[in-house]
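Milestone 3.1: sequence recovery, worked example.
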C-alpha cells in the first residue's frame, strides 16, 4: 500500500506546519500505513469472529479504541 504524498502533506500542514520536508512526508506515510495495517488486521479478526467475510465500519471503530 502506498499513500499519495499530497494528502499526507496536507495533514501535516493542517496540524500547523508552514513548510514540510519530503522526508517528513515519507516518515508520516510509513507510520500511517503501519497503523492502518494493524487496524485492518484487528478489524478482519473481528469480522471473522462474528462469522462474516465482510469487514464493517463497526469492526474498524472497535479496532481503533
Amino acid at each position: 500500500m502506498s499513500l499519495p504524498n499530497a494528502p499526507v502533506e496536507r495533514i501535516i500542514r493542517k496540524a500547523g506546519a508552514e513548510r514540510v520536508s519530503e522526508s517528513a512526508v515519507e516518515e508520516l506515510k510509513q507510520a500511517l500505513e503501519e497503523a492502518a495495517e494493524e487496524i485492518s488486521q484487528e478489524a478482519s479478526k473481528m469480522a471473522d469472529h462474528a462469522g462474516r467475510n465482510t469487514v464493517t465500519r463497526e469492526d474498524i471503530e472497535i479496532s481503533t479504541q
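The helical segments are 5-14, 22-49, 57-63. The first helix runs from residue 5 to 14.
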